[in-house]
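User: quick one, sequence for these tokens?
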């Protein structure tokens, strides 16, 4: 039992021991845990104690960071704002005064707002303080700092004129209390009409005028198509109206009427470029009004931070700028570029002329091209303007605008210039410039006294008119447009004939003037439907008056173009041309009646570079078979070797030509043709050259001799030259040399032999070889020829040769130094002259050529002039033909 007890006790002890051990372990663990927790608590406590210090540091760091960002941002924003301001208001709108100069806005570019100072931005770049004015609004100045207020007005005005083309800003000042108000320095603008002052009591009138302008611009310039001039300028690139700025400085309280006009201008002015800058007046509430308050030490621009005002522009800068601007404006506007009249290169020669010819001639007051039409209505044009006003230039501009639109198959030009000058010569091919205007068929320059050339052109056109009328009749149509439709393969270009200084053609009361006027009238009346248009220009009132005598003729010229100060081109009471600025024209398609006036600004087209740019382009586009225009230069002496008729001459292979021809000179005609004397075997086929002018007489005989020689093989003809005037010696010798072996030389000593020998030859049977006697100053041999040789005098022999020679191919081509001398040689004053079948009169008056030399009584209407002759061949002519002797034979 004891054992059991002992065993039990041992077991209890063991169990208790184990429980104690477990408890101790647990306690130890709990104590460890407690210690750990305490440690954590300490750490937490320590950590918790450190928190406020860290948070504060972080906050400060963040704050500093935000602050720095903010400053950078302000700097960045103010830089951007300054950049944007400079972009929007470039050059003269913002530049500092030391660097300031006018920088007018380019064509479609808006002028932009104007700087008055800078906005004070702390820690940022100063930003220009801009005031919208031109095309944008009005400015009202208030506040007590008068000097600073004046500085603002002066700055605004100077910047405004500097942003516009010269003359495009017009200022009106209303300063009843003579405050000056910043306007004083602008006085030089007054000399160009760009600054006017309205006296006390004139405010109402001034506002009425502004309202009137706004009304006019709205109804006629914007015309419902654009909302503002600014829009119009952006769309078209042109600004047809100036800016009008009224500077109103104080005065009495406006009346009710004035107030309501002021309201109108404020509400509607900016769209029409009408602006107000006021001080001492209150403008109505409107979004377009910028209000600037100028107090001593503080300037505010409504809605913006305070403004640091710019200094006033230096007085010398203002006056110098205004003086220069006024000088520019007084010198006249800059011409518009010629290229404005031309279509883009890929659109050239695209127009069809069947119905009419339409081309711009310049820029109208509304900025639109002024179009000029030639067609059924109006068919013909009259251009007038005193010398130097730009007639020639206008003709170039018009021709250029037409030539760029219509191809040479659609349009041809004929151009005649009666005054001296060569500017039109460039339409034809020249030595300096090989190009020509492909549409140009004929250019006559220096026509001066050669009215026959004008007549020849009119005859040529009359012939063309007949050709067209015949064709129209054949196809049973009446108009060019219809003819072209029924005959599409035919060549029916419209023809524009321009005659500058045309009054020369009608001057005088002779046959030329009469025929010219008749032809002009016929062409003017019937040309309209056949596509032949006349453009007559004159600097001379008498030119127009010459036409006025023929009202039927004038009535056809319904298109009138008047250059500045032109008289009598427009209708009687239409004096629009009197106030035209330089380089402008009144274009009027209503026969000059005032309601048809259109003012056009004409570009410069006639200077060499401008014109040749276009001509070269068109020349390169010419059809492969295009030939240059015929150039007739009244001052030039034609050369025989260049004459197509001379070049075409040749000798037959065998035998002799039945009727060799002697070329005597160039005919004044549309084509370069020679005056031709046919020398068949027929009585009277001799030539007399009559007059005292040695060079011309020699030129006629030399051309005759050379051209005859070209028609005979060597040895197939005889030439005998007798020279009896030492002054003719060199010309005669030169001919002698050129005629080679077939020529014999005679002088005063030997001329009798020539007569005797030739007369003897006439007695031999047969026709014989052609023999041409070229007698220079034959009358000088009268003494020698009066002597009897055998049974006859030399003069008798000469008469026999003249009489019988031609039928035996012996022809006399002789120069007598006067008609009386010739008659004496032929047997006396009453002698017959029919053996002289043809003559060329040089300085011999028409009256001397009467009697048997010319049909009718009194002789031809011939007034001698240098290097011209009148050729008459009784076998072919009814009237004489003016010729130009050939010069420089080789
Ligand atoms: N629209 C223009 N723009 C610029 N310059 C021009 C313009 N029109 C004419 N001119 C210049 O004015 C000068 C005179 O012009 P132009 O020769 O055309 O006058 P005109 O009336 O034909 O004179 P004239 O009858 O004496 O020949 C020329 O130097 C010409 O270049």
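Assistant:
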């Amino acid at each position: 039992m004891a054992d059991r007890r002992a065993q039990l006790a041992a077991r209890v002890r063991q169990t208790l021991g184990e429980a104690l051990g477990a408890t101790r372990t647990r306690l130890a663990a709990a104590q460890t845990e407690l210690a750990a927790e305490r440690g954590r608590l300490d750490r937490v406590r320590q950590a918790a104690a450190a928190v406020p210090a860290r948070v504060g540091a972080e906050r400060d760091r963040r704050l500093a960071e935000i602050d720095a960002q903010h400053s950078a941002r302000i700097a960045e924003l103010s830089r951007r704002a300054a950049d944007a301001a400079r972009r929007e208001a470039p050059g003269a709108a913002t530049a500092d005064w030391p660097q300031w100069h006018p920088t007018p806005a380019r064509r479609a570019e808006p002028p932009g707002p104007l700087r008055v100072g800078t906005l004070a931005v702390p820690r940022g770049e100063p930003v220009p303080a801009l005031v919208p004015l031109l095309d944008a609004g009005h400015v009202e100045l208030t506040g007590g700092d008068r000097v600073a207020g004046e500085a603002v007005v002066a700055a605004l005005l100077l910047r405004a004129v500097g942003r516009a083309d010269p003359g495009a800003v017009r200022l009106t000042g209303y300063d009843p209390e003579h405050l000056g108000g910043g306007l004083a320095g602008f006085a030089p603008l007054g000399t160009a009409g760009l600054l006017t002052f309205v006296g006390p009591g004139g405010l109402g009138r001034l506002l009425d005028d502004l309202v009137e302008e706004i009304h006019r611009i709205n109804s006629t310039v914007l015309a419902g198509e654009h909302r503002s001039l600014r829009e119009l300028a952006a769309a078209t690139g042109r600004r047809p109206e100036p800016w009008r700025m009224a500077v109103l400085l104080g005065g009495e309280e406006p009346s009710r009427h004035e107030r309501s006009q002021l309201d109108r201008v404020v509400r509607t002015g900016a769209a029409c470029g009408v602006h107000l800058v006021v001080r001492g007046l209150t403008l109505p509430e409107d979004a377009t009004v910028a209000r600037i308050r100028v107090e001593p030490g503080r300037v505010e621009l409504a809605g913006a931070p305070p403004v640091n005002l710019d200094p006033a522009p230096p007085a010398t800068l203002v006056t110098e700028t205004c003086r220069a601007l006024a000088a520019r404006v007084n010198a006249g506007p800059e011409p518009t570029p010629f290229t404005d009249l031309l279509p883009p290169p890929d659109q050239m020669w695209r127009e069809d002329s069947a119905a009419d010819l339409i081309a711009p001639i310049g820029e109208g007051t509304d900025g639109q091209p002024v179009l000029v039409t030639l067609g059924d209505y109006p068919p013909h044009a009259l251009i007038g303007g005193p010398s130097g006003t730009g007639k020639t230039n206008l003709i170039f501009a018009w021709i250029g605008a037409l030539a760029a639109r219509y191809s040479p198959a659609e349009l041809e030009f004929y151009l005649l210039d009666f005054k001296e000058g060569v500017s039109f010569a460039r339409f034809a091919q020249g030595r300096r410039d090989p190009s020509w205007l492909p549409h140009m068929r004929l250019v006559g320059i220096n026509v001066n006294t050669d009215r026959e050339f004008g007549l020849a052109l009119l005859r040529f056109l009359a012939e063309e008119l007949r050709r067209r009328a015949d064709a129209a009749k054949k196809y049973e149509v009446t108009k060019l447009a219809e003819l072209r439709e029924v005959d599409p393969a035919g060549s029916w270009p419209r023809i524009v004939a321009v005659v500058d200084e045309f009054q020369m053609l009608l001057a005088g009361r002779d046959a030329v003037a009469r025929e010219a006027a008749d032809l002009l009238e016929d062409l003017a009346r019937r040309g309209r439907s056949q596509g032949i248009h006349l453009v007559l220009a004159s600097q001379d009132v008498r030119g127009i008056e010459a036409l006025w005598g023929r009202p039927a003729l004038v009535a056809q010229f319904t298109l009138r173009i008047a250059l500045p100060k032109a008289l009598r081109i427009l209708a009687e009471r239409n004096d629009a041309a009197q106030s035209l600025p330089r380089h402008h024209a009144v274009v009027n398609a209503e026969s000059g009646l005032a309601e048809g006036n259109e003012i056009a600004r004409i570009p410069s087209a006639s200077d060499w570079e401008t014109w040749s740019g276009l001509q070269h382009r068109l020349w390169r586009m010419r059809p492969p078979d295009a030939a240059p225009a015929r150039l007739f230069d009244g001052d030039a002496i034609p050369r025989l070797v260049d004459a197509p008729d001379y070049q075409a001459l040749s000798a037959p292979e065998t035998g002799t030509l039945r009727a060799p021809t002697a070329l005597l000179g160039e005919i004044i005609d549309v084509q370069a043709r020679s005056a031709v004397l046919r020398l068949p075997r027929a009585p009277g086929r001799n030539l007399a050259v009559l007059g005292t002018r040695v060079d011309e007489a020699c030129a006629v005989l030399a051309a005759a001799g050379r051209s005859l020689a070209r028609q005979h093989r060597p040895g197939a003809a005889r030439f005998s030259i007798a020279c009896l005037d030492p002054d003719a010696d060199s010309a005669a010798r030169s001919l002698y040399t050129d005629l080679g072996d077939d020529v014999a030389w005679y002088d005063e000593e030997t001329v009798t032999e020539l007569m005797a020998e030739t007369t003897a030859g006439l007695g031999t049977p047969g026709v014989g070889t052609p023999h041409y006697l070229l007698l220079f100053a034959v009358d000088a041999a009268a003494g020698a020829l009066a002597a009897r040789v055998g049974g006859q005098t030399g003069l008798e022999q000469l008469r026999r040769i003249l009489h019988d020679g031609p039928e035996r191919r012996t022809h006399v081509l002789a120069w007598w130094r006067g008609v009386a001398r010739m008659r004496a040689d032929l047997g006396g004053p009453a002698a017959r002259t029919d053996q002289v079948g043809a003559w060329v009169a040089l300085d011999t008056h028409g009256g001397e050529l009467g009697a048997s030399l010319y049909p009718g009584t009194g002789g031809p209407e011939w007034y001698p002039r240098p290097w011209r002759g009148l050729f008459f061949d009784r076998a072919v002519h009814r009237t004489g033909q003016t010729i130009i002797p050939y010069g420089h034979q080789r």
